[in-house]
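anyone seen this seq b4? input:
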Amino acid sequence: MTLIAIFFPFISFLFRGKILTGIICLILQLSLIGWIPAAIWAVCSLQNSRANKRTAKILKSMRK
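predicted toks r here
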């Protein structure tokens, strides 16, 4: 999924159900200069999403 976020940033957002964010990222990605910030944004967002899932899983197991 990280490779998709680097090479096709807008698809990374679409796969995770963030349609509006994916469209904004696609607009940014259409310019050659905007490709790098779009890829960085997609990778950071993916890592943040994974961290949030990990945290939720840890909190859920602590409550038991």
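The mean pLDDT is 91. Residues 2-63 form one domain. kinda curious what u guys think
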